[in-house]
């Protein structure tokens, strides 16, 4: 039996062809895929090629390869449509992680910034699953700290909103972390498993991406690590305050309340 090569595994075998077609990559003889792995990769890299507009292709190659290994070594088969969906979701999560809202000011040096901060881009208007904007609100003279989130769906349904308060924590950053954990658990409770979370707290993003650098928050970070396993697609993205005004407003309203607040619904509280 002839040994399978990389080109056949990723481009030519029938399940791979189906996955590429389902990812909206034009598949036709003499163009793509071909018998040359170099020509197939160049189909996406050559700026004058029709495939140059297909930004998902690195993720497609990776997940087709992973699926092939799962089939060979674990005797488990993944459907081509599922491969395309996961690859497109991961590509979108990566693209969103590179995004910052236009006009945000950063120092001229990138030292100390989490990889993924970029200037002059806006969030893509087309996305999969849910986007959950989340914020915490803290003031030293208040009894409570507040948390708020606003979740929008790729299906265009009305946004869902959430707000709560809790006894004032040690610092504003503690409030941001607790607000994020609460928002994650609300998404899990609503069975939203493909979620990009957005925050205007850069330290929260750094904390989640490098948890060992924040030992004082180890207990919270353990909760985050456990909860994020409930999501099929998870990301935490930094945005400017101007992009997070709705979650900020909900968190502030909850913080200044004289009583305990717990609100989750698709219209704001009175």
UniProtKB/TrEMBL annotation:
Family matches, as Pfam families: RVT_3 (PF13456)
Top-level taxonomic group: Eukaryota
SUPFAM superfamilies reported in the protein's UniProt record: Ribonuclease H-like (SSF53098)
Gene3D superfamilies the record matches: Ribonuclease H-like superfamily/Ribonuclease H
Ranges where the RNase H type-1 domain occurs: 134-254
Protein name: Uncharacterized protein LOC104738246
Naturally occurring in which organism (per UniProt): Camelina sativa
């Amino acid at each position: 039996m002839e040994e399978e090569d990389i080109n056949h595994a990723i481009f030519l075998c029938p399940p791979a062809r189906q996955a590429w077609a389902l990812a909206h990559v034009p598949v036709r003889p003499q163009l793509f895929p071909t018998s040359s792995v170099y020509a197939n990769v160049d189909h996406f890299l050559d700026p004058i090629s029709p495939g140059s507009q297909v930004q998902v292709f690195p993720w497609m190659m990776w997940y087709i390869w992973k699926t092939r290994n799962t089939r060979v070594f674990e005797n488990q088969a993944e459907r081509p449509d599922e491969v395309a969906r996961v690859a497109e979701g991961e590509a979108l999560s990566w693209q969103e992680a590179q995004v910052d809202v236009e006009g945000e000011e950063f120092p001229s040096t990138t030292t100390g910034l989490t990889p993924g901060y970029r200037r002059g881009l806006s969030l893509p208007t087309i996305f999969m699953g849910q986007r959950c904007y989340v914020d915490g609100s803290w003031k030293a003279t208040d009894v409570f700290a507040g948390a708020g989130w606003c979740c929008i769906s790729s299906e265009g349904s009305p946004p869902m909103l959430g707000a709560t308060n809790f006894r004032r924590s040690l610092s504003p950053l503690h409030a941001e972390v607790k607000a994020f954990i609460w928002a994650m658990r609300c998404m899990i409770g609503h069975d939203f498993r493909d979620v990009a979370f957005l925050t205007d707290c850069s330290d929260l993003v750094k904390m989640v991406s490098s948890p060992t650098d924040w030992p004082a928050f180890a207990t919270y970070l353990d909760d985050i690590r456990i909860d994020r396993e409930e999501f099929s697609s998870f990301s935490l993205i930094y945005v400017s305050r101007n992009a997070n005004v709705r979650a900020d407003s909900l968190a502030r309203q909850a913080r200044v309340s004289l009583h305990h607040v717990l609100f989750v619904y698709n219209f704001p509280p009175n």
